[in-house]
Amino acid sequence: MIEILSTGAVNSVQDLGRTGYLDAGAGRSGAMDTPALEIANLLVGNDRDAAGIEIALFPFRLRFERDTIFALAGADCPARIGDREVPGWWVTNATAGEVLTLGLPRFGARAILAFQGGIDVPRVLGSRSTDLKSAFGGLEGRGFQRGDRLPLIEVPRRQLRIEAGFGADPSQLRGVVTSKDEPIVLRVLPSAEHDVFTAAAISCFFDADWSITNDANRMGYRLSGPDLQLTRKLELFSHGIMPGTVQVPPNGQPIIQLAEANTCGGYPKIANVIEADLWKLAQAPVGARLRFEMTDRDTAVAALAKERAFMTDLAAAASLMRGWM
User: pTM of the predicted model, to two decimals?
Assistant: First the structure.
């Protein structure tokens, strides 16, 4: 069991999300930075889709009510247990009664915490993820409040401590952040209405820097930049959309749909952010600048295959390390 001591209302229980229910109007939800959750879960010996905690508002504090191990991933934020510093992307021991504190990120926007066994909340439509928009799943369909207590799935006691810690180096997947001032490059594929935008609009879409506005949450990010215009008036029936879809409403300012995206919408779609780059949006704070770069299907598939290979290698390495301890 863990107890939440201080939090923001959007911090929540998340796993890799629910799939197969878009036709019923239930979106994916799940962690915004899915690779970070997978890596943290693998480090502590969980299945990749075990439920953890996504933190987007800081500071965040929790108390461990029993011994366990955990891993912190995602945003680069200062973290401590008592007077001990907690490194990111690393397995850390926690003893009953200790308090973990996460401070404001130095880089990134969302931290992920995975605990051995995973958080034990009911599955709804096959997932423990919280859908904050629709208020179901996770902990009573809501974000955390001070005093909330979250049960952890029990594991054999012999697995509870790691005397010689180990971790992961995600830089081969995520690169190394050197400056907050550089635009974040997102690879995209053309979407269904791409060719209905004017040549000037398409040029601006790829040449301009776009800023993430204050209207940014798990549903999507509204961007600020040049107006993107169509070659003709276009009226569309609502149709299916997914995380990564870049829609352009009548005001000409794009919206990127994210983890809690509506399952359908009627705005024209100019592009889709490839799946392997969605984590970059999860770690992009309000005010960050984005730059879009056209890619092709083969590159998108290869990027995802590289991510899958990294997870497979990490799972094997983590299993081997535990066998030595």
Answer: 0.93
